[in-house]
Amino acid sequence: MNLVMIGTGYVGLTTGVGFATLGHKVACVDIDASKIARLDLGEVPFYEPGLQEALKQVQSSGNIMFTTDLESVIGQADIIVLAVGTPPKSTGEADLSALFAASQQIGFCLDHEAVIVVKSTVPVGTNRKVLAHIRKTMQEKNREELSGLINIVSVPEFLREGTALQDFLVSDRIVIGADDAIAASTIDRLHEGIKAVRLVTTIESAELIKYAANAFLATKISFINEMANLADRVGADVRDIAQGIGLDHRIGPHFLNAGIGYGGSCFPKDVSALEQLSGHNGYSFKLLSAVIEVNNRQRDSFFKRLVDELGDVKGRRIAVWGLAFKPDTDDVRESAAIEIAQRLCAQGAEIAAYDPKAMENAKRVLSDTVIFAPTAMDAASGADALVVLTQWPEFKEVSFKTLRDQMVEPHIFDGRNYLADLHLEQLGFIYRGVGLGRYDAS
Ligand SMILES: NC(=O)c1ccc[n+]([C@@H]2O[C@H](COP(=O)([O-])OP(=O)(O)OC[C@H]3O[C@@H](n4cnc5c(N)ncnc54)[C@H](O)[C@@H]3O)[C@@H](O)[C@H]2O)c1
Which whole number is the average pLDDT over 394-398? Predict the structure, then answer.
């Protein structure tokens, strides 16, 4: 099939490359000309494992092309996919301006029957508004009759940064929300070759499934963080609790790692957007408010513990390991690590940070007083404390014996319990995790 993918971010590019791998002809469109120029040269503008190689392959097979000019490629399209960003507004609601701008652009230049797919995460009712925007613009362009033949299908995206390409090819489910059975079956055929259960629903259900999935996972994280705080007070180890409950198939082992809470471009914004959506529909979703509160408190209490133990951090040198919101990505949007680093800077600490992939993105958001070190060891040399904020595997490969000699004071605050198994106390470190039952919170 011929596909136009609008938006070449983490979702649009990965799924565009994925569909091209399945043999479809994909034209990727973005308003960011520098991104398109890099993609045209075969360069992925962000870090996602395997994507660079996959892009090269589909480029050489001629199945993918990049442009800023929607009009030049839309004429061929059977399907037009919207994968633009829907970031949060200050109120917590989703900002749909990019989506509606792109819808209008489609309406301007679409001159044949096509199925529109919304892949961006959007509040209930948005797909219908997108369709209304497209139809209205087509009508203004004297394409009234044709506008009635345009269909919309909600296909929310569930990929995870870090394993995005794998998630595209083998996924738990593909949700297809549609009014029109023929449009739904076209989208089903588009996904031929992907191993996943198909779930066909109404448009509204599909829109809500995406928010429900992220809100549920965020709830699991906040739940285990609450257990961690209790574990600290009663001398239990939250890792044992996570394992003990995770072995129960009804609960499952995932998203039960206690720490400084969830971050990233999806969970914080989607949980807030769902809470807002509920409020706008006259329903107070109390559980979600608590999930958000617990997540915020988790960062606060980690920071408080650090300051309590170190005393005044002003002028102290603190090493930060990890800036991405999770390993295997360079994405720092809503990263808890960035927030902790910012708070330390605000209190006058001298920060030396290291992240294997996210330094360039972090430089854009962190103060220019932050030192970006070339290695984890360099960041920690001369430090009064080390703060571990992202679970990058290379952090476990460091020689902790050498690290102990390089640091001025031996404090390690591990916001992810990532190094908890290494028995660092035996090497002379003062090691603090989250919920390991070794912290007197009184
Ligand atoms: N990142 C994830 O892990 C993930 C996972 C599932 C769902 N989602 C959802 O997918 C959507 C996209 O997320 P993302 O992380 O890929 O965003 P992103 O910010 O990485 O990419 C969005 C892209 O859209 C482009 N764009 C904006 N307006 C445009 C227009 N009018 N025409 C063409 N391009 C335009 C931007 O330049 C940018 O390159 C969001 O709704 C997000 O919530 C993201």
Answer: 98
Using the mean position of ligand 1's atoms as its centre, give its distance from the Cα of residue 125 in Å. Answer: 19
Q: What gap in Å lies between CA 323 and CA 436, rounded to an integer?
A: 23
Report how far residue 398's alpha carbon sits from residue 403's, in angstroms, rounded to the nearest whole number.
8
How far, in Å, is the centroid of ligand 1 from the Cα of 239? Answer: 35
Going by pLDDT thresholds of 50, 70 and 90, the confidence category of residue 219 is very high
> Which pLDDT value is given to residue 367?
82
Residues touching ligand 1 (Cβ under 6 Å) are 6-12, 29-32, 35, 83-86, 98, 101-102, 105, 120-121, 157, 159, 161, 265-266
Encoded amino acid at 189, one letter: R
Over residues 87-114, the pLDDT tens digits come to: 999 988 899 999 999 999 999 999 999 9
How far is residue 325 CA from its own chain's centroid?
8
pLDDT in tens, 241-286: 999 999 999 999 999 999 999 999 999 999 999 999 999 999 999 9
Mutation test of ligand 1: which of 67, 84, 271 has the most ligand atoms closer than 8 Å to its C-beta?
84
Q: Which atom of ligand 1 is nearest to the CA of 105?
A: 31
> Residue 101 Cα, ligand 1 centroid: separation in angstroms?
13
CB atoms within 10 A of CB 26: 26
Atom of ligand 1 nearest to the CA of 29: 33
| d(C-alpha 79, C-alpha 188), whole Å | 12
Matching CATH number, 2-201, of 3.30.365.10, 3.40.50.720, 1.10.1090.10, 3.40.50.2300: 3.40.50.720
CB 329 within 8 A of CB 360: no
Every domain range in the chain assigned CATH 3.40.50.720: 2-201, 234-432
- Structure token digits, residue 106: 């489609």
- Half-sphere exposure at residue 294, Cβ-oriented, CA atoms within 13 angstroms: 24
Element (DSSP H or E) covering residue 359: helix 359-365
Q: Which atom of ligand 1 is nearest to the CA of 86?
A: 41
Task: At 186, list the tokens.
Answer: 């076209």
